[in-house]
Write a structure and sequence with these properties.
single chain; alpha/beta; seven-stranded parallel sheet; 8 helices
């Protein structure tokens, strides 16, 4: 599903300054959604805003560190007060950390990787569940990773945090199985041309990898008001 009409819908994308978040925020805006784009990098958000405007879309930029004490909660309050609903949540921001033996991972790295990959999405659920339920068809999509299943050596913080994210989202989804309005799913995007991938595999030629925009048909299906999938781990099969 690529030809989707999201006019009048409000979408929040975390990690929107680059990679998957950037590409999906642009596609959401092209489809008519007003995009609330969050990331730490102001420059990347401004570049995204230029692209969205050039495509005839609209966005609200929110520079924010997901590890800040109350930034997520304040944003939830602002969304509730200004718009009274949230139609789409795309929780994309992620942290890889250093690929190193588990016994050598320092406490600060654990706090950062788990904080971004697991605690921040948990706080998003708390902050945005109300606005999502206020929508006629709230849709939440969380970008995870096959590392949650492969659990390869030296990836302990990333793998553990993504496995935790999967459990978090599926448990939350089960809380909403009977009410029907809210749909929440996890996506494994697979190998993509991103900065995180380049950091993990520096010897790889990024030009041989698919651009994150190829995810749009899958993401558009999951954020559509017509989506019936719920509580699934959806693997991109390019």
């Amino acid at each position: 599903m690529t030809d989707i009409d999201l006019k009048g819908r409000l979408a929040l994308v975390s990690g929107a300054s680059r990679g998957i978040g950037y590409a999906m925020a642009l596609e959401l805006a092209k489809a008519g959604a007003h995009v609330i784009a969050t990331a730490r990098t102001q420059g990347g958000l401004e570049e995204l805003d230029d692209k969205i405007k050039a495509a005839g879309g609209t966005a609200t930029l929110v520079p924010m560190d997901l590890l800040s004490e109350d930034g997520i909660e304040q944003l939830g309050q602002i969304i509730n007060e200004r718009w009274g609903k949230l139609d789409i949540l795309l929780a994309n921001a992620g942290a890889l950390g250093e690929l190193t033996p588990a016994a050598q991972v320092k406490a600060k790295q654990w706090q950062t990787v788990v904080g971004v990959n697991l605690i921040a999405p948990a706080r998003m659920i708390r902050a945005f569940e109300g606005p999502l339920l206020a929508s006629d068809a709230g849709r939440a999509v969380f970008i995870s990773s096959g590392a949650a299943e492969s659990r390869r050596a030296f990836w302990a913080p990333y793998a553990a945090s993504k496995a935790g994210l999967d459990a978090l989202v599926q448990s939350w989804a089960k809380e909403h199985e009977t009410q029907g309005k809210l749909k929440a799913n996890v996506v494994y995007p697979g190998v993509m041309r991103t900065i995180m991938r380049a950091k993990a595999f520096p010897g790889e030629d990024p030009k041989t990898l698919p651009h994150p925009s190829v995810l749009w048909p899958l993401i558009s299906e999951l954020v559509s008001p017509d989506c019936t999938r719920h509580g699934e781990i959806v693997k991109y099969e390019g």
